[in-house]
Specification:
This protein is α/β, with parallel strands linked by helices. The chain has 18 helices and eleven strands. The strands form three sheets. Strands 3-2-1-4-5-6 form a six-stranded parallel β-sheet, sandwiched between helices. α1 packs across α7. Bound molecules: coenzyme A. The site of coenzyme A has 23 residues, from α1, α4 and β5.
Length: 415
């Protein structure tokens, strides 16, 4: 048994944000029926192609454990099939451009008429307001949600991050909204709308930066490196490079081999509770009792000097040796792991976080499995569906059409 067994998802999502959400729901046991335009499908199937003729990794890695139904929502028979699907399914998930679902004839009012228990879950770039009509992709959301203005170095431009916090981050928010709405429906008997704007999702993940924005009113942010360098703060939360962002100062430091290996670095946190161990490890035992270094407050204006000294030590060790030496002393450190290292990490293979999947068009490939582990709902990662692979099966088994009706629909161009 899986946690979401019996839940049917009408998956009208495309690209990344929506598919991230429905993939998670599929891993947790929902029957996810991905609806795609006949002949075309989700645009990502043919984006960033590495094997001509095969579905791209972009598509396959976001659409595991789903079934694919092709259907032309603008064809009269296609619309009728869609209405039957709305009546049958529990959740409709979509991330079309604003207004597209309404233009297909599926307004919230119409959906409720067809199925009052239906949960309608949507991702859009922005919530109600001046930008609610805009089309939005990942980096636009990172910029509009506060991530870019607070990422990067003080003397450089705003930066977007590699973590897809706008798309996949919003997909996660949406998934939580959906399971919560399913839970509420158990008691209320009613469906509801679940709405996750990407700007809101990014801002939620940048919560600590809005914290700092308000702390600025009380004076300079002492834990930011720029404070120790005597650089004045402006009127907005600044970019803080690799500063830890929390109450325990941290930096990314070079390790042995950094001259040739772009990832020979470690993150090093000078947690107050283990300061004396840090002093011993880096060969500065005199700092333990020196009033300029002995307390966290005394250290804040000297972070550059302190991290320079720590880096002189980390440069003598590999990032893994730093880990081996510091962990037993409870000094929090983290090696900068490349995608290659992560892909090859045996422990991630063992937990199912990195999984090898076979695919009929492209052969075996690696993917990230379900990052949430439920002890009573195991996840088996299954390959993404080919375009329309399950059209006939869904029409027959989910909607009860006869074989002849299925053939007629295929011939009409509705599916
Ligand atoms: N049958 C018939 N028509 C279909 C269809 C189907 N099965 N599936 C999609 N379409 C149509 C839509 O109805 C729409 O038509 P319309 O504009 O005439 O109403 C059209 O395809 C295109 O949809 P749209 O969502 O506008 O795609 P796009 O490629 O132009 O834009 C995004 C892509 C991602 C920018 C846009 O969908 C968007 O802003 N989504 C919300 C935010 C989001 O999720 N962004 C992150 C994506 S990772």
């Amino acid at each position: 048994m899986k946690a979401l067994d019996g839940v049917k998802i009408l998956d009208f999502t495309h690209v990344q944000s929506g598919p991230t959400c429905t993939q998670l729901l599929a891993w947790l046991g929902a029957d996810v029926i991905k609806v795609e335009r006949p002949g075309a499908g989700d645009a990502t199937r043919k984006q960033l192609v590495d094997k001509p003729g095969a579905d791209s990794l972009y598509f396959t890695m976001l659409n595991h454990n789903k079934r694919s139904l092709t259907l032309n929502a603008k064809h009269e028979s296609g619309r009728q099939i869609l209405e039957r699907l709305v009546k049958t399914c529990d959740v409709l998930v979509e991330n079309f451009a604003p207004g597209a679902l309404d233009r297909m004839g599926f307004t919230w009012e119409r959906i409720q008429e067809l199925n009052p228990r239906m949960i309608l879950a949507s991702v859009k770039g922005f919530g109600p307001g001046p930008y609610s009509d805009c089309k939005v992709y990942e980096n636009v959301a990172q910029c509009a949600g506060g991530a870019a203005s607070t990422t990067g170095f003080l003397d450089g431009p705003p930066l977007v991050t590699g973590a897809q916090i706008g798309d996949s981050g919003t997909g996660l928010h949406l998934a939580l909204g959906i399971v919560t709405a399913l839970f509420q429906r158990e008691k209320s008997g009613r469906g509801q709308k679940v709405f996750a704007p990407m700007q809101d999702g990014v801002l939620n993940l940048c919560r600590v930066k809005l914290r700092d924005q308000q702390r600025l009113a009380a004076g300079p942010l002492a834990e930011y490196s720029q404070h120790g360098r005597g650089i004045a703060f402006g009127d907005a939360t600044p970019r803080s490079g690799n500063d830890s962002g929390g109450g325990q100062p941290g930096r990314i430091l070079k390790c042995k081999g950094w001259e040739t290996d772009p990832n020979a670095y470690t993150y090093f946190i000078t947690q107050a509770a283990v300061w004396e161990s840090v002093c011993d490890v880096i060969g500065k035992p005199e700092w333990k009792n020196d009033p300029d270094y002995a307390t966290p407050a005394a250290r804040l204006p000297r972070l550059d000097q302190i991290f320079d000294a720590i880096e002189q030590w980390t440069c003598t060790q590999t990032k893994f040796e730093v880990m081996d030496i510091c962990n037993p002393l409870n000094i929090p450190v983290g090696p900068i792991l490349s995608m290659k290292e992560l892909a090859e990490e045996p422990s991630l293979r063992e937990t199912g976080t990195i999984v090898e999947v076979d695919h009929p068009e492209r052969g075996p490939y690696l993917t990230v499995g379900c990052p949430i582990k439920l002890s009573d709902s195991e996840v088996e990662v299954a390959r993404s569906p080919l375009l329309g692979e399950h059209t006939a099966e869904i029409l027959r088994d989910v909607l009860g059409y006869s074989d002849d009706e299925v053939v007629a629909m295929l011939e009409s161009g509705a599916v």
